[in-house]
């Protein structure tokens, strides 16, 4: 497993090259990027902050849980902090598995659980002001314990 919090550009190509193995039938990638608008407001940039030590511990626990819960072979979970411009990647999740269904399910569960539980905060700066974002509603059907 590769779990990191970085202050620089996420190494997407490097992570993909490292995670692939002969036993894999699928590698699912979620590359969360900064978009130019949120709920109809023009976004200028985002700032990410975190309780770094706690966030890293929780991300490591989530990656390990995903391997067990979804029976996938490997997980990479990386998040960037600091100021991010439009089009830059803020989070990278890569899941390697023998089967695509497990890879997709684990990838979706990881991003939704990370956004809900890990102490990483996003400040969105718009043309007309700024807010600390609460995130999108968390889908109940994929909450921890829902697939058991």
TrEMBL record:
Pathway: Cofactor biosynthesis; molybdopterin biosynthesis. Belongs to the MoaE family. Its EC number is 2.8.1.12. GO terms for biological process: Mo-molybdopterin cofactor biosynthetic process. Heterotetramer of 2 MoaD subunits and 2 MoaE subunits. Also stable as homodimer. The enzyme changes between these two forms during catalysis. The keyword Thylakoid does not apply. Keywords: Molybdenum cofactor biosynthesis. It comes from the Bacteria. The keyword Transit peptide does not apply. It comes from Granulicella rosea. GO terms for molecular function: molybdopterin synthase activity. It is an enzyme of class 2 (transferase). It catalyses: 2 [molybdopterin-synthase sulfur-carrier protein]-C-terminal-Gly-aminoethanethioate + cyclic pyranopterin phosphate + H2O = molybdopterin + 2 [molybdopterin-synthase sulfur-carrier protein]-C-terminal Gly-Gly + 2 H(+). This is Molybdopterin synthase catalytic subunit. Gene3D superfamilies: Molybdopterin biosynthesis MoaE subunit.
């Amino acid at each position: 497993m590769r779990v990191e919090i970085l202050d620089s550009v996420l190494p997407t190509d490097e992570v993909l090259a490292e995670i692939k193995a002969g036993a894999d039938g699928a590698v699912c990638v979620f590359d969360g990027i900064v978009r130019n608008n949120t709920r109809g407001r023009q976004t200028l940039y985002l700032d990410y902050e975190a309780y770094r030590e706690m966030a890293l511990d929780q991300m490591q626990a989530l990656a390990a849980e995903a391997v067990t819960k979804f029976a996938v072979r490997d997980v990479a979970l990386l998040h960037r902090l600091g100021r991010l411009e439009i089009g830059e990647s803020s989070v990278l999740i890569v899941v390697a598995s023998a089967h695509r269904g497990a890879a997709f399910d684990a990838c979706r569960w990881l991003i939704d659980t990370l956004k809900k539980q890990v102490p990483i905060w996003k400040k969105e700066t718009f043309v007309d002001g700024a807010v600390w974002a609460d995130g999108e509603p968390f889908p109940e059907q994929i909450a921890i314990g829902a697939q058991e």
